[in-house]
Design brief:
Blueprint lengths: L1 H16 L11 E6 L20 H5 L5 E4 L9 H10 L5 E5 L2 H6 L6 H8 L3 H5 L3 E7 L8 H10 L5 E4 L8 H10 L2 E6 L14 E6 L12 H14 L4 E6 L6 H12 L4
Parallel strand pairs: 1-2, 1-8, 2-3, 3-4, 4-5, 5-6, 6-7, 7-8
Helix pairs in contact: 9-10
Length: 268
């Protein structure tokens, strides 16, 4: 009997020596669309009877983030930005696309003043804590230029920034390491014509743009593609926060694809 007690005590002591490591919580994943003002979403995402001025409000019933694309073409109006904040619930985040004047006309040269003008009307968004990442999309003919990249990084305001390269010359370890040193996320721009795109993480968060599906019809993402991306994002979110936006807005593909991806990730 005494031997059995000794053995039992040894087992209990051995079990007590093990430290149970809790599973770390998954990082947030935000999924939405690139914009919300698309006429062919009427009858798909938006009920027929809902007026356009309420479309963002309805959009926010389905998604907790949106990528604002209109700022790429023209500066936002401060009153419009304030209205966007009022139409969406607390916790809703806006990713905002930087002006093409800065990326396509100035091509990242001498843009300090332009950045200030771009940010000024976004103040209601910033003040409300609703401003997410700023997206900087470079044109396809913008080749690698290390000095311009460094100069751009020096003038970036505080906050999250992500850059989308559309020329293959940028996808080299040296460029990725520079982004990593500044915590700027490499945009993952998914498009079948850009096979040079990599999935490298250069920050503790990721930014994905779904431009055009490879297997669905006319740029739609097939359920198989969505499943693949869901598995990929599920792995990434163990360590990184993820922002993902569908840019295939025609024929209502974007909101349908975004909803399916949310469902696959357990958020739909």
């Amino acid at each position: 009997m005494g031997g059995q007690c000794d053995e039992l005590g040894q087992v209990v002591g051995l079990l007590a020596s093990f430290t149970i490591t809790p599973t770390p919580p998954m990082k947030p994943v935000r999924i939405g669309c690139s914009g919300w003002m698309y006429d062919d979403w009427r009858g798909r995402l938006y009920p027929e009877h809902v007026r356009k001025r309420r479309w963002l409000e309805v959009y926010a019933e389905h998604f907790d983030t949106v990528e604002v694309n209109s700022t790429f073409y023209r500066l936002a109006r401060r009153d419009a930005v304030a209205g966007w904040v009022e139409q969406t619930p607390a916790g809703f985040l806006f990713a905002v696309k930087a002006s093409r004047y800065l990326t396509h006309v100035k091509r990242l040269v001498d843009i300090g003043g332009g950045i200030a003008r771009f940010y000024e009307p976004l103040e209601p968004m910033r003040d409300a804590g609703r401003l997410g990442p700023i997206l900087w999309q470079l044109p396809e003919n913008f080749h690698r230029d290390d000095q311009r990249l460094e100069d751009w990084l020096e003038v970036l305001p505080s906050g999250r920034h992500t850059i989308e390269f559309r020329h293959p010359s940028w996808f080299v370890p040296e460029v990725l390491e520079v982004l990593r040193s500044r915590g700027v996320a490499l945009t993952i721009g998914d498009h079948p014509q850009r096979s040079f795109q990599t999935y490298d993480a250069t920050a503790d968060w990721r930014f994905i743009r779904f431009h055009y599906g490879s297997r669905g019809r006319a740029g739609n993402y097939s359920s198989t593609e969505i499943d693949t991306w869901a598995r990929r994002i599920a792995q990434w979110r163990r360590r990184d926060e993820v922002f993902a936006y569908f840019n295939n807005d025609w024929r209502g593909f974007a909101p349908a694809n975004a909803k399916l991806l949310l469902t696959r990730l357990g958020g739909g």
